[in-house]
Amino acid sequence: MEWALFLTFALLAGAAAVGMVLQRSPIYSALCLILTFFAQAGLYVLLHAQLIAFVHIIVYAGAIMVLFLFVIMLLDLRPEDHPPVRFGQAGMLLGLILAALLLAELALGIGPRIILGSQGSYDLETLRMLGNTQAVGRILFREYLVPFELTSLILLTAMIGAMVLAKRRPE
Amino acid sequence: MVHGNSQNRFYLLSVNRELRTVNEGFSMENLIWLVPTFPLAGFLVNIFLGRRLARLWVSWVACGAMGISFGVSLGLFFHLINLAPHLRHLEQELFTWIRIADFKAAAGFLLDPLSAVMILVVTGVGFLIHVYSIGYMGEDRDFARFFAYLNLFAFFMLLLVLANNYLLLFVGWEGVGLCSYLLIGFWFERPAAASAAQKAFVVNRVGDAGFLLGLFLIWTTFGTLQYGEVFHQAEGLHGVLTAPAGGGLSVVTWITLALFIGAIGKSAQLPLYVWLPDAMEGPTPVSALIHAATMVTAGIYMVARSSPLYTLAPFSLAVVAWVGALTAIFAATIACVQNDIKRVIAYSTISQLGYMFLGVGVGAFASGIFHLYTHAAFKALLFLGAGAVIHALHHEQDIQRMGGLRPHMRVTAYTFAVGALANAGIFPFAGFWSKDEILFAAFNGGFYVLWFLGLAGAFLTGFYMARLYFLTFEGEYRGDPHHAHDIHDAPPTMGIPLIVLAVCSVVAGFVGIPPEQGPFHQFLAPVLHHGGAAQAAAHGLAVPMAVLSLLVAGAGIGVGYLFYVSVSWRNVPEIWAARLQGLYRVVYHKYYVDEFYQDWVVGPLDRLAFFLWRGFDVAVVDGAVNGVARLMEMGSWGLRRIQTGVVFNYVLSILVGVVIFLGYLVWGR
Amino acid sequence: MVPLWAYLLLSGFLFIVGVVGVATRRNALIIFMSIELMLNAVNLTFVAFSRFLHSLDGHVFVFFVMTVAAAEVVVGLAIIIALFRNMETVNVDEIHLLKG
């Protein structure tokens, strides 16, 4: 059952990701990416990270992708009229070789070589007792309080930066 | 390591302190930090806001800071007086300053009788000189900068005397050196002032090198720089410390000698005294505060503070005493023939500092500090009086072009006379009690040669002080006739400090009566317990000895009177100068010491520096740097083509890099 | 139970798809989306390791990554808008501003 769900979500995510890269129209690309995110949220749930799953959907699908779609429509971007891939056969070959090498490296690198360190104290039982959100909240506000508060500074900076950049300056 | 006895005492001390804290709710030692903080605050206000504040405000801030600081010092002093003698040791640790592996240095303050006397001198005389400066510097356009530096100096000086460890003392030590540099060169548009400031700074570096070596030795020997720990260990390590270590001298001898080199530089002793006369290029209040009353006495303070170490090193003490005695007479001879009013007083200061070192060198630490304290009053008075004269004569400093000033500036003349008598050591002025005590200690300790040198110096002191006073204030006016009609006394801001200091110069010595047993000495006894104890024996000789030194000093003054006032002897100085022409010229040129240093130390160093600049720095270092830069330029000229500006190319190169790196991780190992 | 390597493999695959997207597409917006995809691939590994190590630190890092990603998107899109306004294109091949 778990395998079935995993394979479904994994295939969905992979296919949607490939679709995003291959689509000519930015709108379709964005929609494909949203599909990937939903599949990924499913994977998070499989990993017992319910809070992350929902935050993921809210932030990515709800906020970031809406922003993308908004910008695409604002700029009124049409599908590219030239082919999406921009090099000849030699370049294509080189790219494929690179990608294959990378995949091979990752597969070989992660497959047999995973060494898990010492186990933490949050096993499934504990999580079930505490509740996923409470557990994450506790660790976030105890051990990572300062970095967590600092992220608000990052967001503030980004907000101001975006306003400054996107503002139309009077001629 | 530590005597059980002293450990117990230490334990008792801390228990007692805790009890008091509980009882009073707050304890006095928590206020020690206030003493240096006010001048620091004054400095910050005046350095940052001074230009925008009115002069009145600047002077109120600066003098107010010193005044409050003096008030706090008085409060602490009376608190100390009210404690039992063995409890007069308040320490306040502010924070851990440096902690590297085993090395730990704390910023902490220590208030005991010795530092209490010092902060009273620094803040008291300092306050008066601040007030005086309002009048003296009134027309200077850098009024605020001057007061800011004065406050900063007071801060560092208080840090120096209040520190409870050698490192913090060294911070203050360097800080006052810096302020001395800034204030000597206060009128830096004048080349003489700028080079005098540099000279003071560089000569002090020589001494500081020795001081630093002393600190390193203390650290490697004791593993700490805290006074209390060092001195308690010194008692326990007696045998180890006094065993011969290097060059036939014991460790503690090396430590104390190295520290004394620092004191030689800071307190202007032979052979590093040359900076002090030149330092007279600074404004006169600076000479009074830094180069007479406080900073130059830091060396004596430091030696007295280290008295537990010095008493373990008889050889170092002998060196201290000899350097002091020789400096005392050497500087006194120069003072007899100088014509610049401030330089005469400067050489007199060097000479008196020599007396202080003579005192501590023969083991009479309390007497040395006593002389430091009386000297602060009368030498500041002399400088401020000289400043008033210079002020009135529109920056005329040559005493040959003065004379007959007494009727025009009575306050200055009479207070100056008091200062001169105190300096000459005439009964009952302050200088008499302290100088006589030092001479007696030298005699009593069996150092007859040193005693004789000191006595001869006393004669010269009487002579040059008489010469200075008579040439300046008596006889007829020999200066610029244009200024003759508008010579008048200084304004009250300058006059009142003169009067206060004159009163101090009279009465300051009375706390030292009877000699070596006075309240002053008993107050200092818990800290300087080694000093004066041995001399208590032969008191039968005390009075005859005092009379003798009084007679000698009086003879000096008498000769001065005959030379410079008496009509029938009018031409005698010239005749004598002509008869002893060779000797006179040598002394007049200050024994050619400056020329000697110029030819044999500064000159070779200059040539070496020139060679290093031209031969090494320009050719080798600059050549290498420029060569590297040219190589980079050539290389980047080729590499510049890679930068296409197309993002895709960058991504591709990152990607290739990632593949190679991961490939190395997966297959490479 | 699905083993760890399966998640890591999927994550690696998504990451490489993102890389390919960045390397091949000319539309700045799609390049941006590919970057988001890469970030998410990393998030997946964080959560997966968290699960198998019985630790929640990975979750916290996912939060931080999300914050950074959000900030990046906001600034990036603002840059793209500014670019489009000035150059009438979002085709990165036609933009050579990085050349010194």
Describe the structure.
The complex is a heterotrimer of chains A (171), B (669) and C (100). Chain A has 171 residues and is mostly helical. Chain A folds into two domains: 78 residues, Up-down Bundle (Four Helix Bundle (Hemerythrin (Met), subunit A)); 62 residues, no CATH class. In chain A, 76% of the residues lie in helices and 0% in strands. The longest helix of chain A is centred in the middle third of the chain and has 26 residues. The mean pLDDT of chain A is 83. With 669 residues, chain B is mainly alpha-helical. Chain B contains 27 helices and four strands. The longest helix of chain B is centred in the C-terminal third of the chain and has 47 residues. In chain C, α1 runs antiparallel to α2 and α2 packs antiparallel against α3. Chains in contact: A-B, A-C, B-C. The interface between A and C is large, with 79 and 70 residues.
Helical proportion of chain C, percent range: over 70%
- Mean pLDDT across the residues of chain A is 83
> Helix/strand/pairing class of chain C, anyone?
mainly alpha
The number of E-state strands of chain A comes to: 0
Just name the CATH architecture of the largest domain in chain A: Up-down Bundle
Structural Rg of chain A: 21 Å
Biggest interface, residues from each chain: A-C, 79 and 70 residues
| Helix proportion range of chain A | over 70%
Largest sheet of chain C: none
Number of helical regions of chain C? 3
Instruction: Write the CATH fold name of the largest domain in chain A.
Output: Four Helix Bundle (Hemerythrin (Met), subunit A)
Look at the helices and sheets of chain A and give the structural class: mainly alpha
- How confident is the prediction overall: mean pLDDT of chain C? 85
Helix count from the secondary structure assignment of chain A: 7
Q: What order do the SSEs of chain A take from the amino end to the carboxyl end, as H and E?
A: HHHHHHH
Largest sheet of chain A: none
- Oligomer state of the chains in this structure: heterotrimer
Whole-number tally of structural domains of chain A: 2
